[in-house]
Write a structure and sequence with these properties.
single chain, alpha/beta, five-stranded mixed sheet, four-stranded mixed sheet, 21 helices, globular, SBP, TAT_signal
Amino acid sequence: MTPNAASASSGPSRRSFLASTAVATAAVAGGMPLLAACGGSDSGEREGTTSGKAADKLLPAFVASTVANPDLPSKNGSASGYTGKVDLAALKTSVPEKLGTGAPIKIMSPFWGSPPKAGCAYYKALDAAAGTKITWQNQDGNTYGQKLGAVLASSSIPDMVVVPSWELVGKISNAVTAKFMDLGPYLAGDKVKKYPNLAAIPSDAWRMGIFGGALRGIPMPAATANWIAPLYRKDIFDKKGYSVPKSADEFMSWAKEATSAKAKVWACDGNLTWSAWSFFGVRGSGPIGWDTGSDGKLTYRIEQPEYLEALEWVRKVFDAGLVHPDDKARTGDAGQRFTSGQILVWNTNIADWYGKVSEQAQSNPDFKIDAMDLFGADGGNPKLYASSPATIWSLIRKGASKTTIENALAAADFSAAPYGTKERMLVDYGVEGTHYTVKDGVPVKNDLGNSEVLNAWVMLAAPAAYYAHPDFPEVARKQVEWQQRMGAFMKKTSTFGMNIVEPTRYANLSSQFEQLEIDYVRGNRKLSDVQAAISTWKSSGGDKLRDWYKELIDKNGSAN
């Protein structure tokens, strides 16, 4: 079985990196703020957050699943891991009765790749098992924000809509409160027990589903110990006798040794910046990028001295010609360059580890991947920041009928089935004999399975995240152990665990920085351009946004 949720659906766009926290589990973090901030259910006040005791009253009761205990329990914010084969004959049932009534519902969701046709065997099987009748309105995940914005601005909204956190910009964040319903009457407290798989979703993940003072989003839990991983070609490292770098200087020295344009081998891909944030201790973007230092001053990530240090270091790597020229030009597929040996380090979603091992197993049996441990730039321990406990939600439109609501919740409950169940097997692999066969106790998808059993149902909800690859159990073990090791160096920012909606007037304040970072490290902009952008950010609203956040944290308490 695959890891839950979006693990198999991280698209080729850079936004897939922002989605990476949706791949795994939410660890119960504790230390939540104490008071409610601004924002009430349908009150018209859509800015701010709700947390602490006020949020607790809105949350579903937590009832842990006992279907299958992981071989590697979650630790330090990691996903859990299953490293044994599944006894397919002993799969348990997590949804003993069909909760759906067969009433039709329309669902809009981002999709990476080519979506299967309506009425395909996979969709028919899931509808039959869950008692649903879903019309999927799958949209290109790389341009989903444009479609989402247009749909939410219209008067015709599908019954259920999947909203990723990285699309909560501009008017979309406020539209979530305005256009989607309060699920509290159906899920708060013991009401959720009608949907046992939803009840087993960790409370921290549910807390992130509170928008505008009401529980609106059904979450896809995420590991908080989750960062872009520098995957490296262990087979080539071993053959060449390379040592895995443990500092920024060591990385630079190794990269110069390993790169040979004549041999068409380069050290790494163009997304090294994403790992550099971890090497240099730079916080993530968005609300989680705010933190209060030991001096009591609240700052945003771009104000950290380490922000410019990380960018300057990556610029040096580019300037030295150690990045593949196609990555510098932002063309082609870095993953293919990695498997062909043209690049030796690929900075990507850790879920891609399994994907590449599986892909290369037959054609290149010597192919081996490992993940570099994240290091402090100076060679010491890294300073890592916890990711959000959930970053993707499915929401039900306001005005939906009770029948529609119950069928949407039935679909979400089915999708959130835990590992070791018939429901999880069906969601992840489809129908035996149609989409997969079993070889040596391991389910293997056929061509139809690979084309139909893709990222649709998994976007509705997910269990507490896990890794489980019956065909490559060692990969699952290494994924979890990497997160556990890195999680030991993790801290929370002041805003951790708060689902914060910033005022619309600040919605585009930081929008220029991603492109500016891309251009600067590639030599197309100057350091002074980045410094000027930071100054402009402060004067054009950043300082006022800081005051807004300070007031928010004063009201709610700090998460750290």
